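Dear V.,

Thank you for sending over the compound details. I've combined the ligand you provided, fe (ii) ion, with the protein sequence from our construct and run the structure prediction for the complex. I'm sharing the raw inputs here so there's no ambiguity about protonation or stereochemistry in the SMILES, which I know was a concern on your side last time.
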Amino acid sequence: MAEDDQKSKKRAIQEITKKIRLSLLIVAFVIIILFAVVLNHLFGSPSTSLFFLPDISVTMIMGIALILSVIGLGYLVRMSNQVLRIIHDYSSRIEKILSITKDLREEIYGDILLEKIMDYALSITHSEAGSLLLLDGDALTFKVVKGGKAEQLTGTSVEKGKGVTGWVAATGKPARIANVAQDERFNPNIDSMTGFETKSILCVPLITRSTVIGVLELLNRSGGFAYRERDEEIIAYLAEQAAISIAKTKFVEDQKNYEIHLTEMLLEAIDFQIPEKKGHSRRVARYSNIIAKGLHMSEGERKRLYLASLLHDVGFLKINSDENFKKEEYSRHPAVGYEMIKPINFYADIAPFILYHHERYDGYGYPSKLSGEAIPLEARIIAIAEAFDAMISLTSYRVPVNFHEAVDELRRKAGTQFDQELVEIFATNIEPQHIKA
Ligand SMILES: [Fe+2]
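Below is the predicted structure of the protein with fe (ii) ion bound, written out as structure tokens.
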């Protein structure tokens, strides 16, 4: 777009320069003529070439000067208005584009982003209908379809290379067609399917890193007008920004998908490693969330705590299961888990919660013997949730206590092993049905 933007900037400047030059030329011409008339009046015609100049009185000269000045002023006002309009159009176009670009860049949800791109393209070009298609292999799939009767097309595909959209996807070039009846690339089958009557088309490719990832197609500029070069320029720019944003949201979604499946994989591995504690991680995450809600933590903080709770025992994956229950081996799991999680960027900020989830409020825990609020809040929460689950769950090495006994036990240890305030929040919010879910 930088190139397109430069082009339209250059054109606006050229137009203004042309108008200024023309007005200067007219002013110079009028001054020269008037000057010659004055000379002619005072000294007679100095040259035969000026024989056409009339010998008129000073009053007449003043009169002519006045009339010319008024005409000149009128012309200058008109020209200034035109210049101002060009500048205004240009700057409002830039402003609109900047605000659209910002909006697209900030959008993190892929589906909403595609809808926004379509809406902006329709409103900028005043088109009756439009569609956004993404390329997957050789199939171009209608992701967003708006206007007319074409919405039934959403989710269907057309072949790369066929029709106008297919041609744009295959060549990576834009297509601006004033009358589809005269363009052999146009495929009338879609119109006959939807009942929509396509007259004009503006279709541009969505390209990232030199690869076509889709196309943006607009149909029937309102009023029956054909699409102009400046429509193509602006839509090409929008498409460029759109392609960057689509690639970005796809990357974020892929990363999210990776994070979810990696977490699932680790949870399954933990359950496999310690079958006696099957489901412990998910239950701890649920109990931690009860405290988080009681503390009115933000959604982001709650998500982070939930993830830390799910993975708090991940360190067991690197501890010999035969020796799991020897105290020294067991007590290594927070530090081992921390070392495993810390290098993974999207887990890095939860690593300290894993490291300190066996610290005690009175400073007698491990591995660092932190006490009080020096222990991260999330680690203090996980400690309570984990202890509660350990008490009420049936394992091969411990007989579970009932719900009320477990809550009483937490209260007894509040202020020594656990943060008193957090225990109270948990005790007042946990209900027997929470442990069955
Ligand atoms: Fe633990």
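A first observation: The chain has a mean pLDDT of 87.

Warm regards,
I. M.
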